[in-house]
Specification:
With about 300 residues, the protein is α+β, with helices and mostly antiparallel strands. The chain has 6 helices and 17 strands. The N terminus is likely disordered.
Length: about 300
């Protein structure tokens, strides 16, 4: 992507604070365009001083990007067809999405939400005021699924606690052996559904996990997970996000009370305001082979 003068970019009055607000639940912000650049193919990437858009994470892309529109001061609306991570190197090079060559919070790098507008005639420029609005209905559906996944993880760990022959060396936010984080291979969130895939291979067996009883009693463990999630939801705890800052790369943590204990988990996504707002949660377990566990968490 285009090389810019980093000093000019940050000294510009339109650069302001470059805040994100999606973690507060916001879906709309009045902002100022801090920078724009064209990608190959003609799409315009807009960086704004403040945005409610949740971009797709380039390292762990479990939650999809927000979609919506940007409206300029003349009332012209441009569809935001994608929201991505943009990283600016110490030398001023823009790198977008999977082309970012470093991990988040690498020294000297800066990270922003990029709003992708595929209209080749879009004339948005730095310094313009702009209204950014994310699709609230889509956001809520994704947030419900994401918050449901944060119930599934610790419920799964508790349900499988009797299958460990020894201490694996890692526990979750509630103190249970953390099968969820030790075995997970991928997580995919869509509207009202989260699909997680786990690998139970040699490393998990060396840590002491016994997969055979799980495969033989899959429905029993599934029922246990669903019963525990239902009990936690009946307590209707608030869900809050603890943020260490308002920049895109700031660390954020999901917090709720589960079974009388406060749970806190690292998370950069969006969430509901309470356990009841998630809706009814139903988890299904499948083992297509002896080393793979697929869990689908449905919300309705």
């Amino acid at each position: 992507m285009k090389n810019i003068c980093l000093a000019d970019f940050f000294q510009s009055p339109c650069a302001v604070s470059l805040r994100v607000t999606f973690h507060t639940g916001s879906c709309e912000e009045e902002s100022v365009i801090a920078a724009t650049c064209r990608r190959e193919g003609g799409a315009l990437v807009v960086i704004a001083s403040e945005t409610p858009f949740h971009p797709r994470d380039y390292q762990w892309p479990d939650q999809p990007e927000d979609l919506g529109y940007a409206e300029d001061g003349r009332g012209r609306r441009y569809e935001v067809a994608d929201a991505i991570f943009v990283a600016v190197s110490p030398g001023g090079d823009f790198h977008a999405d999977r082309d970012i060559p470093v991990r988040k919070n690498s020294p000297g790098w800066n990270y922003f939400a990029g709003h992708v507008i595929r209209d080749e005639d879009a004339s948005l420029t730095a310094g313009e005021r702009v209204l950014l609005r994310a699709d609230a209905e889509r956001r809520l559906a994704l947030s419900r699924a994401h918050s449901a996944s944060h119930l599934m993880g610790p419920a799964l760990n508790r349900a499988l606690s009797g299958l460990w022959r020894k201490d694996p060396g890692r526990t979750d936010a509630l103190g249970a052996n953390d099968f969820d984080q030790l075995a997970i291979e991928s997580s995919s969130i869509s509207e009202l559904l989260c699909t997680d895939s786990y690998h139970i291979g040699k490393s998990m067996r060396k840590r002491g996990f016994a997969a055979e009883p799980l495969a033989a009693n899959l429905r029993l463990y599934e029922d246990g997970i669903n019963d525990l999630i239902a009990r936690w939801q009946s307590e209707d705890s608030a869900i809050t996000i603890r943020a260490e800052g308002d920049s895109l790369a700031s660390r954020r943590y999901w917090r709720a009370t589960l079974g009388g204990k406060e749970a806190e988990m690292p998370c950069g996504g969006t969430h509901t305001r309470s356990l009841s707002e998630i809706g009814q949660v139903r988890v299904s377990l499948e083992m297509p082979d002896n080393e793979t566990l697929i869990i689908r968490t449905y919300v309705r």
